[in-house]
Design a protein that fits this description.
Oligomer: single chain
CATH class of the largest domain: Alpha Beta
Order of helices and strands: HEHEEEEEEEHHHEHEHEEEEHHEEEEHE
Helix content: 25-40%
Number of strands: 19
Distance between the termini: 32 Å
CATH topology of the largest domain: C8orf32 fold
């Protein structure tokens, strides 16, 4: 089915799969897959006048995540599912006119995941052209100046892209730290981090730093913005179930000529160090550090790779990323990093587990 035809159907009915590609892939998962139901409940009735909300939704990803269905209830709002033209980030949007008082939406998505491993070497790679996009700088993630200088020092004398990526990963783990005072997941302004020498932050800071340094070293890399949806088999602090309104988490991946897209998560190594109070040399942390170069535990659902981009429909300004709900009512901007103030709840339940 062509994208134009799919969007026409999307306008006719709020019961649909969550991406164009999902039409071909939305089959019930088999062994090793887990199925989760994610539900947004939003009430913006206290906001005056006309306005719009955007909600990030799961996307199909590799061979480890499949969207099964998405549906919503939005009353009389003008609601639709859209994708931005650059990154194809899916987002539910709803617009209310000034005379509407009940501004409430409920959006439910079912998504299947399975743990993601590094692919075997030498497979047929089909996404080399796609990877070129992820060498480009963005507003918050330049690849010149101090970013390029830092990357050059880290990878000096190293030949292969995989060894370079590993050196950058190790540098992040050794030189950054998780700052619990950072609001939300951080903003990922890597130039400021390097210029000030303050390398503390949360996942969007630390993993964006990995991505920016990798790009500066000539390695395609990207963030994946998403949310934790279940408890972790690794460390308690690396999981969340039930009310996941504050469980957003950014991960990273780089493109290898040998392995394709390789998952990494140096930020979660630093999170485990902080919250378990274990030393970086503790055997449990050493093992986690080794594992998270080439592995994602899929008690987490990915939304998109979008960075410094325009929403669809356009907002008043580009967003640095879309991992939280976002809304505009006139000059008022609602920050999804504060669910209570925003008046939204995101919940997760597991509805299937095929071991």
């Amino acid at each position: 089915m062509k994208r134009r035809e799919f969007l026409r159907l999307a306008a006719l009915s709020p019961l649909l799969t969550a991406t164009p590609q999902a039409l071909a892939a939305a089959i019930r998962p088999g062994a090793g897959w887990r199925t989760f139901e994610l539900t947004y409940e939003v009430d913006l009735s206290v906001q005056n006048g006309s306005g719009r909300i955007w909600l990030p939704l799961p996307n199909n990803a590799g061979d480890y995540q499949r969207v099964l269905s998405t549906h919503w209830q939005a009353g009389t709002a003008n609601a639709a599912l859209n994708w931005d033209p650059v990154y194809q980030a899916p987002a539910f949007s709803a617009r209310w006119d000034s005379n509407e008082s009940a501004k409430m939406v409920t959006v439910t998505t079912q998504v299947a995941t399975r743990n993601r491993q590094m692919a075997p070497a030498g497979r047929s790679l089909r996404d080399t052209e796609e990877a070129a996009l992820y060498l480009q700088p963005t507003e918050h993630m330049p690849v010149d100046g101090i970013v390029s200088e830092t990357a050059g020092k880290i990878v000096k004398g190293i030949a292969s892209p995989d060894d370079k990526a590993r050196a950058i990963y190790d540098w992040i783990v050794d030189n950054t730290f998780r700052d619990p005072a950072t609001k939300g997941c951080g903003m990922g302004n890597i130039k400021t981090m390097l210029e000030t020498g303050y390398l503390g932050g949360k996942c969007a800071d630390l993993n964006s730093l990995f991505v920016g340094l990798a790009r500066a070293a000539g390695i395609p890399a990207r963030e994946m913005y998403g949310v934790r949806v279940a408890e972790s088999e690794q460390f308690q602090c690396l999981g969340k179930a039930g009310d996941i309104s504050k469980a957003q988490h950014c991960r990273a991946e780089y493109f290898s000529p040998r392995y394709g897209w390789v998952p990494v998560d140096p930020a979660d190594v630093r999170k485990a160090v902080l919250e378990t109070k274990l030393a970086i040399t503790d055997p449990k942390i050493v093992e986690l550090r080794k594992r998270l170069f080439g592995y994602w535990e899929m008690n987490w659902v990915g939304f998109n790779n979008a960075r410094d981009f325009d929403l669809n429909p356009k907002a008043s300004q580009p967003l640095p990323y879309l991992m939280y709900p976002y809304a505009e009512f006139g000059e008022t901007r609602l920050d999804g990093r504060d669910p209570a103030s925003f008046k939204f709840r995101l919940s997760s339940i597991e509805i299937g587990n095929q071991a």
